[in-house]
């Protein structure tokens, strides 16, 4: 199974998850990427130091999420619900592969996510249709205002459904000291262990 971990900048959480899984499962085919990542940046020093305490060397280089990577992956595990939602909106063709890490190993709220996927798909379709129909009739600012009004009910439905979800986010250590990164590492270790067991059982 080819696994892609996704976070924001691909310098903290997702490379830590990648390294932890590789340590636990050396034969794993695993990469990481970031929704807003630049290319070829070194991992955060605190992230590397936190893993070094466990004897793990963090040597990844950052890369942005791309259709090529999403096509390569059999499973895409995000660090937060927001990351997952961004992927659903920006890369809808691969959404059957998307889970938060915690969601995937706990397998809760499956029905809610199925409903959310459908709501997002409808939202994207309505958005595209409205823009196509009105793009020549309004200027950019007017189009944006009317678009927000047109989609407000749909967006409120999405937000209401989202609020019923369990918190599936791995805490973001960015900007914190080494102890914060150690806390995130320990959080990740628990879920990576559960992921490794799930892989072993398939």
From TrEMBL:
An annotated Gene Ontology molecular function: protein tyrosine phosphatase activity
Membrane spanning residue stretches: none
Domain Phosphotyrosine protein phosphatase I residues, every copy: 1-198
Hydrolase keyword on record: yes
InterPro entries: LMW_PTPase, Ptyr_pPase, Ptyr_pPase_sf, Tyr_phospatase_low_mol_wt
Keyword Hydrolase: yes
Active site: 7, 13
Gene3D superfamilies reported in the protein's UniProt record: 3.40.50.2300
Pfam families listed in its UniProt record: LMWPc (PF01451)
Keywords from the named record: Hydrolase, Protein phosphatase
Assigned protein family: Belongs to the low molecular weight phosphotyrosine protein phosphatase family.
Record-given protein name: Protein tyrosine phosphatase
Organism the protein comes from: Lentibacillus amyloliquefaciens
């Amino acid at each position: 199974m080819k696994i892609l971990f996704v976070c924001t900048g691909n310098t903290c959480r997702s490379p830590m998850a990648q390294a932890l899984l590789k340590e636990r499962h050396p034969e794993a085919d695993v990469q990481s990427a970031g929704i807003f990542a630049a290319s070829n940046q070194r991992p955060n020093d605190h992230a590397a130091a936190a893993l070094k305490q466990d004897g793990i060397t963090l040597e990844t280089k950052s890369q942005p999420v791309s259709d090529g990577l999403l096509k390569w992956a059999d499973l895409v595990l995000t660090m937060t619900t927001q990351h997952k939602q961004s992927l659903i909106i920006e890369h809808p063709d691969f959404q059957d592969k998307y889970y938060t890490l915690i969601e995937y190993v706990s397998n809760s709220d499956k029905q809610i996510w199925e409903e959310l996927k459908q709501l997002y798909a409808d939202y994207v379709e309505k958005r595209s249709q409205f823009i196509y129909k009105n793009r020549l009739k309004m200027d950019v600012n007017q189009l944006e205002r009317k678009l927000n009004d047109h989609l407000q009910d749909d967006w409120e439905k999405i937000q209401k459904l989202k609020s019923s979800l369990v918190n599936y986010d791995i805490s973001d250590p960015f900007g914190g000291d080494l102890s914060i990164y150690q806390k995130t590492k320990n959080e990740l270790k628990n879920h990576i262990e559960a992921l490794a067991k799930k892989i072993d059982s398939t």
